Amino acid sequence: MRYAHEVDKVRAAEAALLARLPEGTLMQRAAAGLAAVCASLLPRVYGADVVLLVGGGDNGGDALYAGERLARRGARVVAVPAGSRTHPAGLAALLAAGGRLGDAAEIDTADLVIDGLTGIGGGGALREPYAALARRANETPGLVVACDVPSGVDANSGRVEGEAVRADVTVTFGTHKPGLFIDPGAARCGVVELVDIGLGPELPDPDVTVTGPDDVDPPLPGPESDKYRRGVVGIVAGGEQFTGAAVLSTGGAVHGGAGMVRFVSVAPAVAVVRRRWPEAVTTVIEPGDAAGLAAAGRVQAWVVGPGLGTGDAAAALVAAALGTDVPVLVDADGLTVLARHRDLLPGRTAPTVLTPHAGELARLLDADRADIEARRLEHVRRAAAELRATVLLKGSTTLIAAAGRPVRVNPTGTSWLATAGTGDVLSGLIGALLAGGMAALDAAAAGAYLHGMAARLAADGAPLAAGDVIGALPAAFRTLAGT
Ligand SMILES: NC(=O)C1=CN([C@@H]2O[C@H](COP(=O)(O)OP(=O)(O)OC[C@H]3O[C@@H](n4cnc5c(N)ncnc54)[C@H](O)[C@@H]3O)[C@@H](O)[C@H]2O)[C@@H](O)CC1
Ligand SMILES: [K+]
C-alpha cells in the first residue's frame, strides 16, 4: 500500500532526522536519488543537455546538487534561477563540476529539465518568473522531471491554482505527499518515484493511503456459505417515474457478491427491476411506506436513495432505513434528503456510508461546490467528522474518509466513468460488500476499487454505459489475487 504524509509531518520527521545527521546529508541523499532517476531516463548521460529550473528554496538546492552529479558524469548542465536567492552551496557545487548559469531559452532544446522551482515550501499560484518557467517547461519536447512535487501543485491537497509543471516523472523524497495522489495535482506528476532518504522511522501514521489490490479483500464464499450467510442487501430505490437508477443499483449488488438482493420500491420500479434482475426478491410498497420497508424481511445492510426522489415520501424511507441497526449506505436523492434532515444521522450506532459527488457534499456541508472540488481532501475529512459517517467523495480522484483513519485514495477508474448511472452501480456494489460483513471503510474502498477497475476493463478506450460497468464486475473481481 502506498501512503502519504502531509507537509508538517514531513518537516517534523526531517527535523528529527537532521538532528542526528551531519548537515546537508538529507539534501545529498535526495539529490543522489534524483540524479540516479534522471540518469536512468537519459539514453546517455555524457553529452546530454540538462536544464535545472532553480527556485529560491531547498527544492532548488536539490536540483543543483543533482545537476552537479550529472555534470560530473559528463552532462552539459545549465541552471536557470527563478528566485532572487539561489541555494549558494548548491550553485557553487554545480559550477565547480562544470555546470553553468543560463537563461530560459535553453529549456526549449534540453534533453531533460529538472523542475526545482518549488517543493513542499510552495504555496498558492506560482508567481513570475516561476510561472513562465513552468509554462516553458511544459512546452519542451524534452523530458521533465519534477523534484519532490511538480511546482505549482499544492503538496498537501493536489490543488493547482495557476500554472503548474506537467512532469513525465516526479521524484519524491522520504514519503509521498497527498497532493501527488489527488487530482488535479496527481495528473501533473507522471510516474512517481519515491527516494528513501531514511525518513521512515521518524514518520507517524500516514495521512493518506492508496488502495492496492492486496487491500481489497471482499468476502469469499466457503463450503458453509448460503445466501443468508453471504449477506442480504436491501435496496430502496426508484420511484413512480425514475426506474433506471433502481435497475443499476440492483445490478451492482447482484454482481457485487450479495447472497441475496431484496428490492423494495413502488410498483413501477419493482416491475422494471424484476424484468432485468429476476435474481432480486422484490417487495412493492406504497410511496413513503416506512412500515413496508421494515416488513420486507431481514437484511444485513440497506442501500437507500438512487432515483428515490426528494419529497416527503423519499424522506420517510431514508429515515426508516437509517432507523435500523444495520449498516446503511445513502446515495443520490437520499443525500439530498439528508441535507435537509441531518438530524437522522447522529443517533445511529451501526455504520453509515455516504457516497456524494461534490455537488451533493456541498449541500450536506453547506459549502461551495467549487471549494470542495479544489480542496477535496479537506472536505471529505470534514464531512466524515461532522456527519459521523464513512464518506466516499466521487470525482476524478475518489477519496474515502472515516474519522481518525487515513483517507483512502482510489487508484482505479477512468474518465469514461463520468456518465449517468455509474454512481448507482457503485452504491449497490458497496451495499453488497457491507452486507457481506466488511467494515464500512473497507467496503467503500473495495467497492470504489472494483468499480473503477470494472470501468477500465469495460471502457478500454471507448465510451462506457453504466450497465457495462455491471457487466465487467466479474472480470474486476478476477483481477484480485486469490479470488
Ligand atoms: N527539509 C529537508 O530536510 C529536506 C528538504 N528537501 C527539499 O527541500 C524542499 C523544501 O524546501 P523549502 O522549505 O526551502 O521550500 P521550497 O524550496 O519548496 O519552496 C520555497 C521557495 O519557493 C518560493 N515560493 C513558494 N511559493 C511560491 C509561489 N507561489 N510562486 C513563486 N515562488 C514561490 C519561496 O519564495 C521560496 O524561495 C523539499 O520539497 C525538498 O525538495 C530535500 O532536500 C530533503 C531534505
Ligand atoms: K518541484
Characterise this structure.
The protein is of the alpha/beta class and 483 residues long. It folds into two domains: 2-210, YjeF N-terminal domain (Rossmann fold); 213-478, 3-Layer(aba) Sandwich (UDP-N-acetylmuramoyl-L-alanine:D-glutamate ligase). The chain contains 17 helices and 18 strands. It has helices at 7-18, 25-41, 58-72, 88-96, 130-139, 227-230, 244-254, 267-276, 290-294, 312-322, 333-340, 358-365, 369-374, 376-387, 422-435, 440-459, 466-478; strands spanning 2-4, 49-54, 76-81, 100-101, 112-116, 143-147, 169-173, 191-195, 208-210, 232-236, 260-265, 281-284, 301-304, 328-330, 352-354, 390-393, 399-401, 407-409. An eleven-stranded mixed sheet has the order 1-9-18-17-16-15-14-13-10-11-12, sandwiched between helices. α8 (267-276) links the parallel β11 and β12 (281-284). α7 crosses α15, α15 (422-435) crosses α16 (440-459) and α16 (440-459) packs across α17. The mean pLDDT is 95. InterPro entries: Carbohydrate_kinase_pred_CS, CARKD, Nnr, Ribokinase-like, YjeF_N_dom, YjeF_N_dom_sf. Residues 10-205 form the YjeF N-terminal domain. (6S)-NADPHX binds at residues 58-62, 119-125, 130, 148, 245, 307, 357, 424. It catalyses: (6S)-NADPHX + ADP = AMP + phosphate + NADPH + H(+); (6R)-NADPHX = (6S)-NADPHX; (6S)-NADHX + ADP = AMP + phosphate + NADH + H(+); (6R)-NADHX = (6S)-NADHX.
